[in-house]
């Protein structure tokens, strides 16, 4: 059985190993021991309802293989981005230019550096060990976050976003970064991404130009990857689309990967989830649901059989044990 639960300090070594497998480009899960230790500490405080900064809860979960006592994945939610650390994006917009004298009318795409997603909730840190990319495990890991959004709406923004990794070659080079940011940062993509992940965005504010960038002045290889996901990130993108997330022309400042957004209440798994009282715990085989308990401090999610009974539900002993719940407790579930 697989279970998603809050990260704990004792998980540090295994989370670091997962971050090292994830590699460069996943700034929300950097392979840095001290940075990850701080992320875990902040997550523990957030689950206790005592975040380091008000309204900036940073929830980090781990995926457990309970049978093999092994951590095999991570996922997370930042309640509100950009309140104390600027959240930068490029916004791709269209401008028109015309001259009646020479009878020329043109449309130009322009990139503007913006902070439009300030205060949005961000989904991130989604990583699943390659050995477990099967049997819908990744889909469960991704969707588990929506049950938390549904159960604790007061903690989150009305807008939810998720950044998708942009195009890189086999050596970790980004054509978009190499043609824009590298001119100002004077360093390789891997190093800049690592600094952003471990030290924050101040160097972006210090070094990146604030002026609009005309897309048609960029080399073709940079133009071609704007808003395009890295091949390995396409499954995550498709999961977001299935939940109702959409691309609105915002891309990552470094690799131009698309930022997906949705209204929290319209996310499919939020909208279709239900809260109910556990009426009985017994052995049976039925339809499979993603199920969570309703406690913030030890919010846990798993997958298994559930059936309706009157105004409540019946679950199996395995589900009850995994979620640490008993008869009379509440659960939230989605098919």
Q: Which H/E pattern describes the elements?
A: EHHEEEEEHEHHHHEHHEEHEEEEHE
- Total DSSP helices: 11
Low-confidence stretches: none
Helical amount: 25-40%
| Largest sheet data | 5 strands, mixed, barrel
Principal-axes shape call: elongated
Rounded mean pLDDT is 93
Q: Quick one: how many beta strands?
A: 15
| Sheet/helix structural class | alpha+beta
Going across the major beta sheet, what is the strand order?
11-14-13-12-15
Q: Between the first and last Cα atoms, what is the distance in angstroms?
A: 17 Å
Strand residue content: 25-35%
Radius of gyration from the alpha-carbon trace, in angstroms: 22 Å
Topology:
Layout lengths: L1 E5 L5 H11 L10 H15 L10 E8 L4 E9 L10 E11 L4 E11 L6 E8 L8 H15 L7 E5 L11 H5 L1 H5 L3 H11 L2 H6 L5 E2 L5 H4 L10 H9 L3 E6 L6 E6 L4 H4 L2 E8 L6 E5 L8 E9 L2 E4 L1 H7 L6 E5 L1
Parallel strand pairs: 6-7, 11-14
Antiparallel strand pairs: 1-2, 1-13, 2-3, 3-6, 4-5, 4-9, 5-8, 7-10, 9-10, 11-15, 12-13, 12-15, 13-14
Structure description:
With 335 residues, this protein is α+β, with helices and mostly antiparallel strands. 27% of the residues lie in helices and 30% in strands. The protein has helices at residues 12-22, 33-47, 137-151, 175-179, 181-185, 189-199, 202-207, 220-223, 234-242, 268-271, 317-323, and strands at 2-6, 58-65, 70-78, 89-99, 104-114, 121-128, 159-163, 213-214, 246-251, 258-263, 274-281, 288-292, 301-309, 312-315, 330-334. Strands 11-14-13-12-15 form a five-stranded mixed beta barrel. The mean pLDDT is 93.
């Amino acid at each position: 059985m697989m279970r998603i639960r809050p990260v704990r300090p004792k998980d540090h070594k295994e989370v670091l190993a997962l971050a090292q497998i994830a590699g460069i480009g996943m700034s929300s899960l950097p392979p840095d021991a001290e940075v990850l230790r701080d992320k875990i500490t902040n997550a523990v405080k957030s689950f206790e309802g005592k975040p380091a900064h008000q309204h900036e809860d940073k929830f980090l979960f781990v995926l457990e293989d309970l049978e093999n006592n092994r951590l095999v994945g991570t996922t997370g939610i930042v309640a509100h981005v950009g309140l104390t650390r600027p959240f930068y994006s490029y916004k791709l917009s269209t401008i028109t230019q015309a001259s009646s004298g020479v009878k020329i009318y043109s449309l130009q795409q322009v990139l503007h550096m913006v902070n439009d997603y300030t205060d949005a909730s961000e989904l991130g840190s989604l990583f699943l060990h390659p050995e477990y990319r099967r049997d819908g495990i990744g889909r469960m890991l991704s969707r588990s976050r929506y049950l938390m959004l549904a159960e604790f709406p007061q903690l989150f923004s009305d807008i939810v976003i998720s950044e998708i990794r942009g195009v890189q070659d086999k050596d970790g080079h980004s054509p978009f970064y190499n043609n824009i940011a590298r001119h100002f940062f004077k360093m390789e993509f891997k190093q800049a991404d690592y600094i952003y992940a471990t030290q924050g965005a101040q160097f972006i504010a210090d070094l990146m130009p604030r002026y609009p960038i005309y897309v048609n002045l960029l080399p073709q290889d940079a133009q071609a990857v704007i808003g395009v996901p890295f091949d390995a990130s396409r499954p995550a993108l498709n999961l977001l689309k299935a939940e109702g997330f959409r691309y609105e022309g915002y891309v990552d400042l470094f690799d131009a990967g698309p930022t997906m957004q949705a209204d929290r209440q319209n996310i499919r798994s939020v909208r279709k989830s239900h809260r109910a009282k556990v009426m009985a715990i017994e052995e049976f085989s039925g339809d499979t649901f993603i199920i969570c308990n309703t406690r913030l401090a030890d919010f846990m999610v798993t997958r298994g059989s559930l059936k309706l009974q009157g105004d409540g539900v019946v679950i199996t002993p395995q589900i009850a044990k995994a979620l640490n719940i008993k008869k009379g407790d509440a659960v939230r579930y989605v098919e």
